[in-house]
Design brief:
The complex is a heterotrimer of chains A (332), B (301) and C (586).
Chain A: H1 11-20, H2 32-42, H3 44-62, H4 80-83, H5 90-97, H6 101-118, H7 121-132, H8 136-147, H9 154-165, H10 170-177, H11 189-217, H12 221-229, H13 234-258, H14 266-272, H15 278-281, H16 284-290, H17 298-325
Helix pairs in contact in A: 6-11, 7-11, 8-11, 9-14, 11-13
Chain B: H1 17-45, H2 49-54, H3 67-72, H4 77-108, H5 115-127, H6 132-141, H7 149-152, H8 159-171, H9 174-182, H10 187-195, H11 200-215, H12 219-224, H13 233-244, H14 264-280, H15 282-286
Helix pairs in contact in B: 1-14, 4-8, 4-11, 5-8, 8-11, 9-10, 13-14
Chain C: H1 2-22, E1 28-47, E2 50-69, E3 82-87, H2 97-105, E4 109-114, H3 119-128, E5 135-138, H4 143-150, H5 158-163, H6 165-170, H7 173-178, E6 188-189, E7 200-204, H8 205-211, H9 219-232, E8 243-245, H10 262-267, E9 275-277, E10 285-287, H11 293-306, H12 321-326, E11 330-335, H13 340-350, E12 358-361, E13 364-365, E14 371-372, E15 375-376, H14 380-383, E16 387-390, H15 396-410, H16 414-419, E17 426-429, E18 432-435, H17 438-444, H18 451-456, H19 462-465, H20 479-496, E19 498-499, H21 508-530, H22 536-548, H23 552-562, H24 565-584
Classes of the chains: A mainly alpha (332), B mainly alpha (301), C alpha/beta (586).
Chain lengths: 332, 301, 586
């Protein structure tokens, strides 16, 4: 079988082609690099296809990365990026040396982690349940309405949650009619992180479910038919067919969100917290903002960004290794 | 009739009416929890400001008045902002999809040499951001300051969405793609005629994500656009809110007309609705794409 | 398909090349800068049979070549126009006033800006990227100011102040001296706020009368009033909506909310977040929240909260307390007296049947006889209202134009900037100028929208802020209310003010730690006020311990070093005199 334009095949195919075509003997590649380049040439069309996106990324993401050196400089607008004095890790030392930084880092990681772990089930459950019902109109309406909170900014949604939970709000009032005391969720350090996590889940589950819904629709219906014939009820079908099929999506989303572990949700925390819960809820971004560390001090802001990126990268690498061991789909 | 058909699976599935009812109940609860805040904001936007200030959470307007919306839409500014933002969203999303599908397809080919490196190349951009100043300098040097393209081009490729789409492509059966390749189709053709038609849900999802991101974009508008006639929606609406409550403008908070400084609560609610409704309407529209792609002659023996 | 794709690729690449080429290349200028290098050399000296090593500091002057890029050219002819960048909401470049101002000043002006909330961010970014507008809004107490100053990005203004005496004479000498930087020069034209807007207590007089009570003068009497309001509900509001005392909180929640109960905190001798004269040593300045009396202030507020006399969402939510007062459901708030008619009209609007009468108390007397009133930092630096500065991108002609603009705005242009144009934005009725309603203006002559004047007025002249009937801002206040408020304002400024002595905080140690100190204080105060079960003394001890982590003693020492009690008091006296003069000027 001849291949029209040197397209994909395995190494075996290639070797056999090389051996059978008249020119094959003369073109046998020598050395690993040359062989690699030869293989790469066969995939040139794919590389070309990748090129536009690569160009955009280079221009708009990588070129500005030269600005990351600001994290290691005392950036002076007058001297610019290439003229400002070099200070090495001074900004990082300054940041880590601030009293209470460890607590802030801990808050950031914990809040992110809780959101990640506890935020996992509900969108999946929601998608699975939606998939189970027969009335299409109900499914569409529910899907749509559930996604609405995503369109509210935290300034609005968080503000509403505060009204709801604060003294004088609907929750304490309702509890009062039941003769229960106001748990003061917003001003008690023990409960505040829970408030952050729960409100975030409620705001985002409808939107997060979209990805899972999309993945579920890609499942081959014949699998379900076969399961039906085998006598499986809907729960077994869910467990053995649906869930495994979206396992890849779940894992990849998890890893991608791991990369953003140090972004614990600035807007939400900022809108909803108050000084009595600083000890558990102050995250890196709110601290940096409130203290005005970045106002006019760009080097410090860049340093924070670099720090976040490095940690995110390390986490993704670690998670990837773990997943490889578990033979699960990895990110690369 | 169609409304009552089973959504995705033939009516072969055994069902337990109690389980069904339970499922509907849970879904209804979740839906109510989600939609309640929107109802509140909507009610506030149609309420009399003073009465709204006294209430906690509202389920219907108190002292019904459309004044807040009239205030928001006064003058051509908001409509113009809608136009600008719509342009950014449509053109931006089209560009996004083009770049994302191509790069995701390439990354999904498991035998591609250097695939790992290319994936790293993409993922890094998701983890690290150079910050606003290098970004600003770049836009300036490209001559894009004060141009709508400054809103469209920088976010043209989102690594998150690329990886997402790559995963969708990876789930597609290899055999279909293989047979197309055997038939001598070029990669581009495979992408366009084989892969994409099968990826309805993925394209709809990623397209929706991009569209919403464009529509809600705020900070690029603040930093890159100076001409007020080119301000995108979110930037403009922020202003409307501030203008409604002059008591926030520093110390000289006297309304220059001796008019009452209007409580911004209802104005803000109206701006939230004005911004959210058009884009939220996109999702139900796209739901029809959440069906399995047509697989013609799927597996050829 | 393949062809399409190649074409698309080509188009993409081409368009990017085109835009890249279209961008003007920044010019590069080389300039020689003298840099002082400090070299420390140890020197041995023999003192009394001991060898002492001392350091000798040798200054070497080096010439360095600094390469900077010129700022990007402006849309208009950059050489001629003055570019002003400031926070500007709802700016319409096509308004009718800008050309009139240009004509009067004789210099084209390019106004640009961002909505106020985002102004600081954007200004920092464009300054950092080398795009300097000629004039920018910049407060001396902002961290960015030190950055720009140290970088040499700002123009000294002294020569121009000499040339434009009207500008120079608007503020007393103490104010200008306070603004001198390390090199002795002045870099900003300030905007004074504090002295004109003292925080007092605003309460419902009609409710007080209905209760048959006297105006409260002490904290205890104030509490009694609040309790009576809650128990007897003289306004017939209903238990659910009634709030006895709702602190204003226009500036946001959290720690900032604590600054809206100034009279209460000050009545204990411990104004929140302020540095005051030590009760033990009249020459020393201490941080008020560290004094033990602060605990009493917190306990008082906690009591109000616990007994339901204080707005229950205070400190927890970021809502604006003033709007609850506007709804007519509260008995008292903290407020600026000169806006009495605005508040009254709002309440009247919300409650048609009520007859609200609003009165003000300059301050309250605390348990030890301390007069608690508003807290004022008698210094433009401490005030931190947005001033204006010129950047090095301004040529002498442009700098001159700027000063001309400011001076004109305060003299001949005053009428235009407050009233607009006769027949378009205001009318003369019976010899008195009355501004038109906004809807009318927008319908007939939208380019004369008076909102634009707010954006065009660079710095309000003190006479824009003083509470007098000839100030158009207060044109609508009824004579009776004006007569009522004026003596209260005067009394407050003269007798009830507590000074914040930390006027000069421009030091690295202070800048690095002051916000952490504030954070610890916020935490301490909020926890105590919101939790009746906490032991105040234990929390106070924990707070004092926590302060140690913030280099508190160093900061306190620095603040004492930079601010002498006598000097700050002299500044305040000057401001008071300035205020008095403005009130009495013909």
């Amino acid at each position: 079988m001849t291949f029209a334009d040197g397209s994909l095949g395995g190494a075996k195919m290639e070797a056999s082609a090389a051996m059978t075509t008249p020119r094959g003997l003369a073109r046998r590649p020598r050395g690993a690099v040359a062989r690699w380049l030869h293989r790469a040439w066969k995939y040139r069309e794919l590389y070309l296809l990748f090129l536009p996106a690569a160009i955009f990324l280079i221009i708009f993401a990588y070129v500005p990365y030269t600005g990351l050196v600001m994290a290691f400089q005392n950036f002076s607008p007058r001297r610019g990026i290439f003229g400002s004095p070099w200070v090495g890790l001074e900004h990082f030392q300054y940041l880590f040396g601030r009293a209470g930084f460890f607590q802030i880092l801990l808050n950031t990681v914990l809040i992110s982690f809780y959101k990640l772990i506890f935020g996992l089930p509900l969108p999946i459950i929601f998608a699975l349940l939606l998939n189970e019902i027969r009335m299409i109109w109900f499914r569409r309406v529910s899907q749509t309405l559930a996604s609405f909170p995503h369109f509210l900014s935290w300034v609005v949604y968080g503000g509403l949650m505060v009204i709801f939970l604060a003294p004088g709000g609907a929750l304490p009032n309702t509890l009062a009619t039941l003769s229960l005391e106001d748990p003061k969720l917003l001003s008690t350090p023990a409960t505040f992180r829970g408030v952050l996590v729960v409100t975030e889940i409620l705001k985002g589950f409808g939107w997060s479910a979209i990805i899972y819904l999309a993945a579920i629709t890609a499942i081959d219906p014949t699998l379900y038919e076969a399961a039906m014939v085998d006598g499986a009820n809907r729960w077994r079908q869910m467990w053995h067919i649906t869930l495994p099929a979206i396992r890849g999506v779940i894992v990849i989303l998890f890893i991608l969100q791991l990369g953003r572990i140090l972004d614990a949700g600035f807007e939400q925390v900022f809108v909803m917290y108050n000084p009595s819960v600083y000890s558990v809820a102050e995250i890196i971004d709110t601290y940096v903002y409130r203290v005005g560390l970045v106002s006019g001090r760009f080097s410090l802001g860049t340093a924070v960004g670099v720090f976040k990126g490095v940690i995110g990268l390390l986490l993704i690498l670690a998670a990837n290794q773990v997943l490889k061991r578990l033979r699960m789909p990895t990110i690369w | 009739m169609r409304l009552f058909q089973r959504s995705t699976h033939p009516a072969l599935r055994g069902h337990n009416p109690i389980a069904d009812a339970l499922i509907y109940l849970v879904l209804t609860l979740l839906t109510i929890v989600s939609v309640a805040p929107i109802i509140h904001v909507f009610s506030v936007s149609l309420s009399n400001p003073n009465e709204a200030a006294q209430m906690g959470l509202m389920l219907w307007p108190k002292g019904f008045t459309p004044d807040s919306y009239l205030f928001v839409f006064k003058g051509p500014a908001v409509l113009r902002a809608y136009g600008v933002t719509a342009f950014i969203t449509v053109v931006g999303t089209a560009l996004n999809l083009l770049l994302t599908t191509t790069s995701a397809y390439v990354l999904s080919r498991s035998d591609l040499p250097g695939r790992g490196a290319l994936t790293v190349f993409v993922v890094i951009t998701m983890l690290f951001s150079a910050g606003i100043i290098p970004g600003y300098m770049l836009i300036r040097n490209l001559g894009l300051l004060d141009s709508v393209w400054a809103m469209i081009l920088p976010g043209a490729v989102s690594a998150f969405n690329v990886i997402l789409m790559r995963n969708f492509f990876q789930e597609l059966p290899d055999s279909i793609i293989e047979s197309a390749r055997i038939d001598g189709a070029s990669e581009m053709r495979i992408l366009a005629q084989v892969v994409l038609p099968l990826s309805g849900p993925a394209i709809a999802t990623v397209g929706l994500f991009y569209a919403v991101a464009h529509w809600n974009e705020l900070f690029r508008g603040i930093f890159y656009i100076t001409d007020p006639t080119k301000w995108p929606l979110q930037v403009l609406l922020r202003q409307v809110v501030v203008m409604a409550d002059l008591t926030e403008l520093g110390m000289s908070n006297r309304d220059m007309y001796g008019q009452l400084s209007v409580n911004q609560l209802t104005i803000r609610a109206a701006t939230v609705m004005a911004a959210a409704i058009p884009i939220a309407a996109l999702y139900p529209f796209l739901q029809r794409f959440f069906v399995k792609g047509i697989v013609l002659g799927a597996e050829k023996g | 398909m393949k062809r399409w794709f190649s074409v698309l690729c080509l188009v993409t690449i081409l368009s990017m090349l085109v835009t890249a080429c279209a961008a003007p290349t920044p010019q590069v200028i080389k300039e020689t800068v003298q840099v002082e290098k400090v070299v420390e050399k140890p020197v041995e000296k023999i003192v009394e049979k001991q060898v002492v090593q001392t350091q000798v500091v040798e200054k070497q002057v080096e010439k360095q070549v600094v390469v900077t890029a010129t700022p990007k050219p402006l849309p208009k002819d950059a050489k001629l126009s003055l570019s002003v960048f400031r926070g500007m909401d709802s700016w319409d470049p096509k308004n009718a006033y800008a050309p009139l101002i240009e004509k009067a000043v004789g210099f084209p002006i390019f106004w640009s800006g961002v909505p106020g909330a985002d102004y600081v961010e954007k200004r920092n970014v464009i300054m950092a990227s080398g795009n300097y507008p000629n004039a920018i809004q910049l407060g001396v107490c902002e961290p960015a100011f030190q950055q720009y100053y140290n970088d040499g990005l700002l123009l000294p203004l002294d020569d121009y102040l000499k040339k434009y005496p009207v500008v120079a004479n608007t503020y007393p000498q103490e104010v200008w001296n306070a603004l001198r930087q390390k090199d002795g020069k002045i870099y900003t034209i300030p905007r004074l706020g504090g002295v004109y807007y003292p925080q007092t207590i605003n309460y419902r007089r009609d409710w007080l009368d209905a209760l048959g009570m006297q105006e409260p003068k002490t904290l205890d009497e104030f509490r009694a009033f609040l309790q009576a309001v809650k128990d007897k509900d003289p306004g017939k509001i209903g238990k659910e909506k009634l709030i006895a005392f709702v602190p204003n909180r226009l500036s946001g929640g959290g720690g900032l909310a604590l600054t809206w109960v100034e009279p209460v905190m000050a009545a204990f001798g411990t104004p929140y977040n302020a540095w005051i004269v030590s009760p033990q040593d009249p020459n020393k300045i201490v941080y008020a929240p560290t004094l033990p009396e602060f605990k009493d202030a917190l306990v008082y507020l906690r009591g109000l909260m616990k007994d339901g006399l204080l707005d229950q969402t205070y400190l927890v939510s970021k809502d604006r307390g003033l709007f609850k007062y506007y709804a007519g459901t509260a008995g008292a708030t903290t407020d600026w007296p000169q806006f009495v008619n605005l508040r009254r009209e709002a309440i009247q609007n919300a409650q048609k049947e009520a007859k609200p009468v609003l009165n003000y108390i300059p301050g309250l007397v605390g348990p030890k006889g301390v007069k608690g009133g508003p807290v004022i930092t008698p210094d433009p630096r401490g005030d931190c209202n947005p001033s204006f500065a010129l950047t090095i991108s301004a040529s002498p002609a442009q700098a001159d134009a700027f000063f001309k603009l400011v001076q004109w705005q305060w003299t001949d242009g005053y009428k235009l900037l407050t009233l607009g144009v006769e027949g378009k934005s205001f009318d003369v009725v019976n010899g008195v100028a009355k501004r038109r309603g906004r809807d009318a203006i927008l319908k007939e002559a939208p380019e004369y929208d008076l909102y634009m004047l707010d954006r065009l007025l660079l710095i309000p002249h003190p006479k824009n802020m003083v509470f007098r009937s000839d100030n158009p801002s207060y044109a609508d206040i009824p004579e009776s209310e004006m007569k009522y408020v004026t003596p209260i304002l005067n009394d407050t400024i003269a007798n009830w003010v507590t000074l914040n002595y930390a006027v000069n905080t421009s030091d690295k140690v202070i800048a690095d730690n002051i916000v952490d100190i504030q954070t610890k204080t916020e935490e301490f105060a909020t926890k105590v006020i919101l939790n009746p079960n906490l032991d105040v003394n234990a929390e106070y001890d924990a707070y004092m311990k926590a302060l140690k982590q913030t280099k508190f003693d160093e900061v306190a020492a620095k603040i004492n070093e930079l601010n002498k009690v006598k000097d700050v008091q002299a500044s305040w006296k000057a401001l008071q005199a300035n205020y008095k003069a403005a009130m009495e000027a013909k």
